[in-house]
Each structure stands twice: as C-alpha cells, then as structure tokens.
Amino acid sequence: MEELAIRVEHVSKEYRLGAIGGATLKGEIQSKLAKMFHKEDPNLKIGEKAYGKNERFLALNDLSFDIKKGETVGIIGRNGAGKSTILKLICRVTAPTEGNIYLNGRITSMLEVGTGFHPELTGRENVYLNGAILGMSKAEIEKKFDEIVEFSEVGQFIDTPVKRYSSGMKVKLAFAVASHLDSDIMIMDEVLAVGDIAFQNKCIDRMKKVAEEEGRTILYVSHNMATVKNLCSRCVVLSHGQVAFEGPTAEAIAIYMQDKNLDDKTFFDVSGAKRQRKNSNRHLLKNLHMYQSPSSVFEYGEIFPFRIEWESENSDERLLMKMIINGIDLTPVGVIFGGELKHCKGRNTAEFKFDTSYLVPGKYTVDIILYDEDKSGNMMYHDRATSMRFTVEHGEKSLKLKHWFKDWGNAVLPCIEQINGDDNNV
Predict the structure, then answer these.
(1) pTM for the whole thing?
(2) How far apart (Å, rounded) are the C-alpha atoms in residues 251 and 248?
(3) Which partner for 171 in 27, 144, 194, 261 could form a disulfide, CB atoms 3.0-4.6 Å apart?
(4) How does DSSP classify residue 292?
C-alpha cells in the first residue's frame, strides 16, 4: 500500500430515485397530493419522470482499480458512466454503498468550477477562503499568494468582487489556488473546460510539472481527449458504473471512441445535434450522407462521395464550406475547403468527394462547417456539426504505410517539388 496513492476496492454506489422530489416543503407537499389524487406533478419539468420510492439506480457497480504514487491517470467514459460519482466518493463528499476506498496522502480536489468562492468577496479574500477550505494554513497562503495570483492571470482584478468575474476568470483563480496546494493527490473534474486554450496548455504544463518533479498523483476527468492524451499516461474507461478498460491512454481513447452502431452508418442526421459553436441560425446543417457507400468503411486510396444538406433563410449571403478531419482522439488531422456553396432560400444540397489516400488507415471523425468571411478575411461561423465518422482500412496500396502513423502522423502529404537553381547565378 506504500506505493499506492488510491485503491478503490469493490465499490458500489446506489441512489434512491424520487425519494425527495420538491426543493421546498411546499413543493414536496404538492407532489405528494398530486400523487394521491392521480394528477400530474406540478414540480416536474417537461420530459421528467416521476419515480417511486422503491426505484433505485446503481451508479457504480463493483468498481475496483489502483493508482500508484506519481501517476497521472485519466478517467473517461460517456455521460452517466459514473466518473463524477467515483470522484465524489474518493473526495469523501459522499460515502459508498458497498466497498472501500483507501487513500494515501493529502488530497486537493476541484469537482466544480469555483467551489467555495463567495461572490461578494474579492478575489484576494477568496484566495484565503478557498485555500483554507482546501486545507492550507494562512502562512502557506501568504507564502504562495503572489505566485497564485501571477499564475491565475487575474492580478488586475484581484481586489474586485468575484461576482463580477467571468466563468473563465473564476476557473483560472480556482485552479491556481488548488495547484499550489502542497498535496499528494490532485483530483480534477472537467476543470479546464471553461478556460481558454492558452490557459489550458498552461494548466497541463503545471500538472505535468507537479507530477514529474514533485511526485504528485493526478486523477483527471475530461471529455476532451486531446488534453487526456497530452496529460495522462494511463486511463480507466468507465461504462455503466463498471471498468470497461484499464491501460495505456491511446488504447483507452480508442475504446472510449468506439461505437459499433456507427461503424456501418452512412446517414447522419445533425438537425437536432448539439453544436460545438453557437450558430447564427441563418444557415443550419440538417444531414450528412455518404450516398453511394454501403458502409462508412473504405479501403485506403478509395474515393468516396458524400452529400450535405442544409437550410438557408436567404440566398443573398456568400456561403462557404470547410471540413475538419479529426483522429480518433478528436485531435485535428487536417482541413479541407469545399469552396463557395450555391444556395437558395429553404433546403439546399451539395455533393463532394474525398480521396482517402491522403490519410493513413484508422478511424476518423469529421466536422462540417458553414461560414463566411468579412472584408478583413476573418471567419464568421454560421453552423458547425460533428457527426460523420468513417474508417480507412489497409489495402494493397497501404501496405507500405503501416509504419507511418507512429512516425509521421495521420496525414499523407505530397512530396516537395524540387526547384533547380540557375547555373548562371552560381
């Protein structure tokens, strides 16, 4: 146990659904009366289900894994897999129904952005408050105060009440406090989801430093596979409250991203899909279709056509399209521009074809983007959808490429054209 930082041993967590339905006593009485007289519960939101007292939900089911000291481990899985539940159990926010969790060292946790921050207090006062909540003494906070503020990048606003901070500023200050605590184990749950890219990279570098140089253990939960791949040496994949896989990060991400239901799918309805970026609603993508293919699996070098369908409010605007190809971990591989789209008011379609010989064999996802450019060349997004997936498999043409992915990445780039110099100028 001396070499272990965390041991999760046959842990299960069960919740009673609908045991308490109202946020207030009045609401609870209203719900009880509605049930007695077989009427609709006035406190339920649209689409919500009323649960009986005896209905239970097993969030974690006989979960076991070990984390050694100094390891940086990611916990990944789809929504509802049990990631946040196990973190709350490890942090002792709640207790397991069955099983045991053994901890070896002092813990710092960030399960919610700005947990412990008081909106009426200034950033300076909240550093002391949050530091005290995390277990730091006043002397520790004073010693590291300048370093915390410098790392947080909010020094100009440190004496401003936190209620006036943006969500990004809050997470910067909260992470700065947590990362400078002298703890043995750091637990982070989607803590970098709000910060900007530059600050995310800064946080990852900080976590790498404390893991490698100070020997701290880091447990990191995120849906951003790029940061997981960059930070974690090992991952635990959760599925329905159980360990689906435990091992190297690359294999874990591949298992997490795998969806057998999509392997043969060629039609992707994106009309109701969650958008990565807020759109203008003037041009909205409806579906993507590999219309001449029986499946989304292609042999290396094969050309496959696809069709996009979108809806436009007008035909006056200039509309452009591009597609970003991502690897299995959602890291961008390259971008392809589809040029200007002819369109009218209402439903529109456009067809394209793609040459798979520019990619090494593997699984890929595609972002389709509708956009325009202003006079300065700045891109103005209309819509962006991530749904289409395809697989490039080895074939006769790809046998010589089997070593490329490891050494040179996903894309197969054209050769550089050699230009001979003018002998008269030598």
Answers:
(1) 0.61
(2) 6
(3) 194
(4) T
Q: Is residue 54 part of a domain?
A: no
- The dihedrals phi and psi of 348, each to the nearest 5 degrees, come to -135, 155
196 with 338, same domain? no
299: in domain? yes
**Which CATH number belongs to the domain containing residue 120 in this structure?**
3.40.50.300
Residue type, 114: G
Q: 310 and 193 share a domain?
A: no
Q: Is position 414 within any domain?
A: no
Indicate the residue among 222, 257, 292 that finishes a domain.
Answer: 257
Residues 132, 267, single domain; the answer is: no
**How big is the CA angle at 415 (ends 413 and 421), to the nearest 5 degrees?**
145
Is 164 within the bounds of a domain?
yes
Residues 204, 80 share a domain = yes
pLDDT (tens, 9 = 90+) of the chain, 426 residues, equals 558 899 999 999 988 765 555 567 777 787 778 777 777 777 666 555 555 555 677 889 989 999 998 899 999 988 888 888 998 899 888 899 999 999 988 887 777 655 668 889 999 998 998 888 777 788 888 888 999 999 888 889 999 998 898 878 888 888 888 888 778 888 887 766 656 677 777 888 888 888 888 888 989 888 777 778 888 889 999 988 889 889 888 888 877 876 544 456 788 888 876 665 556 678 889 888 888 777 788 888 888 888 999 999 888 888 999 988 988 777 788 888 888 888 888 899 999 988 888 888 888 888 888 988 887 777 888 888 877 888 888 776 666 665 556 667 778 777 777 776 555 554
Under DSSP, is residue 52 helix (H, G, I), strand (E, B) or coil? coil
In this structure, the strands spanning 379-393 and 297-299 are parallel
CATH number, domain at 371?
2.70.50.60
